[in-house]
Design a protein that fits this description.
Elements (H helix, E strand, L loop, with lengths): L1 H16 L4 E7 L2 E2 L22 H4 L12 E3 L4 E7 L18 E7 L12 E9 L1 E3 L4 E2 H7 L3 E5 L7 E11 L10 E11 L10 E2 L33
Parallel strand pairs: 3-11
Antiparallel strand pairs: 1-2, 1-4, 4-9, 5-6, 5-10, 6-12, 7-8, 10-11
The structure holds copper (II) ion.
Enzyme class: oxidoreductase
InterPro entries: AA9, AA9_LPMO
EC number: 1.14.99.56
Length: about 240
Protein backbone atom coordinates (compact mmCIF):
# COMPACT_ATOMS: atom_id res chain seq x y z
CA UNK A 1 0.00 0.00 0.00
CA UNK A 2 2.75 2.41 0.96
CA UNK A 3 4.66 1.52 -2.17
CA UNK A 4 1.64 2.14 -4.35
CA UNK A 5 1.04 5.53 -2.77
CA UNK A 6 4.58 6.78 -3.16
CA UNK A 7 4.79 5.70 -6.77
CA UNK A 8 1.59 7.56 -7.63
CA UNK A 9 2.98 10.65 -5.89
CA UNK A 10 6.15 10.32 -7.90
CA UNK A 11 4.03 10.27 -11.06
CA UNK A 12 2.03 13.28 -9.97
CA UNK A 13 4.92 15.61 -9.15
CA UNK A 14 6.25 16.04 -12.69
CA UNK A 15 2.70 16.75 -13.85
CA UNK A 16 2.40 19.61 -11.36
CA UNK A 17 5.77 21.01 -12.41
CA UNK A 18 4.76 20.88 -16.06
CA UNK A 19 2.93 24.20 -15.93
CA UNK A 20 6.17 26.08 -15.26
CA UNK A 21 8.92 27.13 -17.67
CA UNK A 22 12.51 28.37 -18.04
CA UNK A 23 14.57 30.54 -20.36
CA UNK A 24 16.29 28.09 -22.72
CA UNK A 25 17.58 29.89 -25.81
CA UNK A 26 19.27 33.24 -26.43
CA UNK A 27 19.33 34.50 -30.01
CA UNK A 28 21.56 37.33 -31.28
CA UNK A 29 20.41 39.20 -34.41
CA UNK A 30 18.29 36.23 -35.45
CA UNK A 31 20.94 33.56 -34.82
CA UNK A 32 19.94 30.78 -32.42
CA UNK A 33 22.52 30.40 -29.64
CA UNK A 34 21.56 26.81 -28.83
CA UNK A 35 19.86 25.02 -25.96
CA UNK A 36 20.72 26.49 -22.53
CA UNK A 37 23.86 28.17 -23.89
CA UNK A 38 24.82 31.54 -22.29
CA UNK A 39 22.07 31.06 -19.65
CA UNK A 40 22.40 30.58 -15.91
CA UNK A 41 20.21 27.48 -15.79
CA UNK A 42 18.13 26.99 -12.62
CA UNK A 43 17.78 23.52 -11.05
CA UNK A 44 14.14 23.21 -12.16
CA UNK A 45 11.31 25.17 -13.78
CA UNK A 46 9.67 26.38 -10.58
CA UNK A 47 9.00 30.11 -10.17
CA UNK A 48 10.45 32.44 -7.55
CA UNK A 49 7.72 33.88 -5.29
CA UNK A 50 9.69 35.79 -2.59
CA UNK A 51 10.63 39.23 -3.92
CA UNK A 52 13.15 39.72 -1.10
CA UNK A 53 15.16 36.60 -1.99
CA UNK A 54 18.44 36.71 -3.93
CA UNK A 55 16.71 34.17 -6.16
CA UNK A 56 14.90 37.19 -7.63
CA UNK A 57 18.17 38.31 -9.20
CA UNK A 58 18.78 35.46 -11.63
CA UNK A 59 16.65 32.54 -10.36
CA UNK A 60 17.80 29.77 -8.02
CA UNK A 61 21.58 29.38 -8.07
CA UNK A 62 21.81 32.34 -10.45
CA UNK A 63 24.26 34.49 -8.52
CA UNK A 64 27.05 32.35 -9.99
CA UNK A 65 28.03 32.15 -13.65
CA UNK A 66 30.53 29.37 -13.17
CA UNK A 67 30.63 27.17 -16.25
CA UNK A 68 28.36 29.48 -18.29
CA UNK A 69 29.67 30.89 -21.58
CA UNK A 70 29.27 34.57 -22.48
CA UNK A 71 27.71 35.55 -25.81
CA UNK A 72 29.63 38.22 -27.75
CA UNK A 73 27.60 40.75 -29.78
CA UNK A 74 28.01 44.25 -31.18
CA UNK A 75 26.33 47.09 -29.31
CA UNK A 76 22.74 47.64 -30.42
CA UNK A 77 22.19 43.94 -31.08
CA UNK A 78 18.72 42.46 -31.20
CA UNK A 79 18.47 39.77 -28.53
CA UNK A 80 15.66 37.21 -28.56
CA UNK A 81 14.82 35.26 -25.42
CA UNK A 82 13.01 31.92 -25.82
CA UNK A 83 11.20 30.11 -23.00
CA UNK A 84 9.76 26.60 -22.74
CA UNK A 85 7.93 24.45 -20.22
CA UNK A 86 10.14 21.41 -20.63
CA UNK A 87 13.47 20.71 -22.16
CA UNK A 88 13.50 22.27 -25.59
CA UNK A 89 10.95 22.72 -28.34
CA UNK A 90 8.37 20.00 -27.87
CA UNK A 91 5.59 21.60 -29.87
CA UNK A 92 3.36 22.09 -26.84
CA UNK A 93 2.59 25.60 -25.60
CA UNK A 94 5.90 27.30 -24.82
CA UNK A 95 4.44 28.52 -21.58
CA UNK A 96 1.10 27.30 -20.33
CA UNK A 97 -1.68 29.65 -21.43
CA UNK A 98 -2.83 30.01 -17.84
CA UNK A 99 0.29 32.01 -17.03
CA UNK A 100 -0.94 35.56 -17.66
CA UNK A 101 1.27 38.54 -17.01
CA UNK A 102 3.95 41.00 -18.08
CA UNK A 103 7.33 40.49 -19.72
CA UNK A 104 10.29 42.57 -18.53
CA UNK A 105 13.98 42.77 -19.41
CA UNK A 106 16.77 44.31 -17.33
CA UNK A 107 20.51 44.65 -17.92
CA UNK A 108 23.42 45.07 -15.50
CA UNK A 109 27.07 45.82 -16.32
CA UNK A 110 29.62 43.52 -14.71
CA UNK A 111 32.58 45.13 -12.93
CA UNK A 112 34.81 42.51 -14.56
CA UNK A 113 33.38 39.50 -16.40
CA UNK A 114 29.74 38.49 -16.69
CA UNK A 115 30.63 35.03 -15.39
CA UNK A 116 32.07 36.51 -12.18
CA UNK A 117 29.14 38.90 -11.59
CA UNK A 118 26.56 38.11 -8.90
CA UNK A 119 24.13 40.87 -9.91
CA UNK A 120 23.69 42.16 -6.36
CA UNK A 121 23.17 45.82 -5.46
CA UNK A 122 21.76 48.74 -7.46
CA UNK A 123 23.06 47.54 -10.83
CA UNK A 124 19.93 46.81 -12.92
CA UNK A 125 18.45 48.98 -15.66
CA UNK A 126 15.04 48.14 -17.10
CA UNK A 127 15.22 48.17 -20.91
CA UNK A 128 11.89 46.58 -21.84
CA UNK A 129 8.44 45.85 -20.48
CA UNK A 130 5.08 44.82 -21.85
CA UNK A 131 1.99 44.14 -19.76
CA UNK A 132 -1.79 44.11 -20.29
CA UNK A 133 -2.02 44.82 -24.02
CA UNK A 134 -5.77 44.67 -24.71
CA UNK A 135 -8.09 44.92 -21.70
CA UNK A 136 -11.22 44.07 -23.72
CA UNK A 137 -9.81 40.64 -24.56
CA UNK A 138 -7.58 40.42 -21.47
CA UNK A 139 -4.58 39.85 -23.73
CA UNK A 140 -1.26 39.95 -21.90
CA UNK A 141 2.34 40.14 -23.04
CA UNK A 142 2.63 36.50 -21.94
CA UNK A 143 -0.06 35.54 -24.50
CA UNK A 144 2.04 37.11 -27.26
CA UNK A 145 5.13 35.20 -26.13
CA UNK A 146 3.13 31.98 -26.11
CA UNK A 147 1.75 32.66 -29.60
CA UNK A 148 5.31 33.37 -30.75
CA UNK A 149 6.60 29.93 -29.71
CA UNK A 150 8.08 31.24 -26.47
CA UNK A 151 10.05 34.11 -27.98
CA UNK A 152 10.31 37.84 -27.31
CA UNK A 153 12.98 40.29 -28.37
CA UNK A 154 14.76 43.37 -27.06
CA UNK A 155 17.27 45.72 -28.70
CA UNK A 156 20.26 46.49 -26.50
CA UNK A 157 20.51 50.30 -26.27
CA UNK A 158 23.48 51.26 -28.47
CA UNK A 159 24.52 53.95 -26.00
CA UNK A 160 25.40 51.36 -23.34
CA UNK A 161 29.17 51.16 -22.79
CA UNK A 162 30.94 48.19 -24.31
CA UNK A 163 31.61 45.47 -21.79
CA UNK A 164 30.22 42.38 -20.12
CA UNK A 165 26.64 42.25 -18.88
CA UNK A 166 23.97 40.13 -17.30
CA UNK A 167 20.72 40.33 -19.27
CA UNK A 168 17.80 39.47 -17.00
CA UNK A 169 14.56 38.38 -18.68
CA UNK A 170 11.48 38.04 -16.51
CA UNK A 171 7.93 36.84 -17.02
CA UNK A 172 5.58 37.34 -14.09
CA UNK A 173 2.58 34.98 -13.95
CA UNK A 174 -0.35 36.56 -12.11
CA UNK A 175 -2.96 33.77 -12.15
CA UNK A 176 -2.69 33.30 -8.35
CA UNK A 177 -1.50 36.82 -7.44
CA UNK A 178 -4.55 38.09 -5.53
CA UNK A 179 -2.59 37.63 -2.29
CA UNK A 180 1.16 37.76 -1.60
CA UNK A 181 3.13 35.58 -2.00
CA UNK A 182 1.33 34.39 -5.07
CA UNK A 183 2.76 36.06 -8.18
CA UNK A 184 5.20 33.72 -9.93
CA UNK A 185 8.47 35.22 -11.12
CA UNK A 186 10.09 33.30 -13.99
CA UNK A 187 13.58 34.63 -14.41
CA UNK A 188 16.41 33.82 -16.77
CA UNK A 189 19.79 35.55 -16.92
CA UNK A 190 22.04 35.48 -19.97
CA UNK A 191 25.71 36.45 -20.01
CA UNK A 192 26.45 38.91 -22.82
CA UNK A 193 29.53 40.84 -23.95
CA UNK A 194 29.06 43.89 -26.14
CA UNK A 195 32.07 44.68 -28.32
CA UNK A 196 31.02 48.28 -29.06
CA UNK A 197 28.96 50.95 -27.38
CA UNK A 198 28.59 54.47 -26.09
CA UNK A 199 28.99 56.24 -22.80
CA UNK A 200 25.51 56.26 -21.27
CA UNK A 201 25.08 56.07 -17.49
CA UNK A 202 21.55 54.66 -17.11
CA UNK A 203 19.47 54.68 -13.88
CA UNK A 204 19.81 51.51 -11.81
CA UNK A 205 17.87 49.58 -9.17
CA UNK A 206 18.55 46.51 -7.04
CA UNK A 207 16.82 43.15 -7.61
CA UNK A 208 15.91 42.13 -4.96
CA UNK A 209 15.12 45.60 -3.64
CA UNK A 210 13.00 47.33 -6.26
CA UNK A 211 10.02 45.00 -5.87
CA UNK A 212 7.66 44.84 -2.89
CA UNK A 213 4.88 42.39 -2.11
CA UNK A 214 2.44 45.31 -1.89
CA UNK A 215 3.24 46.61 -5.40
CA UNK A 216 0.02 46.82 -7.48
CA UNK A 217 1.78 44.94 -10.26
CA UNK A 218 2.65 42.06 -7.91
CA UNK A 219 -0.42 41.64 -5.71
CA UNK A 220 -3.34 41.93 -8.12
CA UNK A 221 -6.53 40.10 -9.00
CA UNK A 222 -6.44 39.78 -12.77
CA UNK A 223 -9.84 38.06 -12.98
CA UNK A 224 -11.99 41.11 -12.27
CA UNK A 225 -12.06 42.73 -15.72
CA UNK A 226 -8.74 44.48 -15.11
CA UNK A 227 -8.50 47.63 -17.25
CA UNK A 228 -4.93 48.71 -16.61
CA UNK A 229 -1.76 47.24 -15.21
CA UNK A 230 1.42 48.84 -13.88
CA UNK A 231 4.41 46.49 -13.97
CA UNK A 232 6.71 46.51 -10.93
CA UNK A 233 10.08 48.23 -10.88
CA UNK A 234 11.27 51.48 -12.48
CA UNK A 235 10.35 53.07 -15.81
CA UNK A 236 11.93 51.66 -18.95
CA UNK A 237 15.19 53.37 -19.90
CA UNK A 238 15.37 53.71 -23.65
CA UNK A 239 19.00 54.77 -24.01
CU1 LIG B 1 3.68 27.31 -13.77
Amino acid sequence: MRLALSSSLALLLPVLARAHFTLQYVWANGVDGGYNNYVRVPPNNNPVTDVTSTDLTCNVGGTSGAGVQTLSVAGGANITLEWHQHAQRTGEDAISGGHKGPVLVYIAKAPTTAAAFNGQGAVWTKIYQSGLLTPSSQTWASDVVNANAGKHSVVLPASLPAGEYLLRAEMIALHVAATYPGAQFYIGCAQIKTTSGGSAAPPKVALPGAYHGSDPGITVNIYNNLQSYVAPGPAVWTG
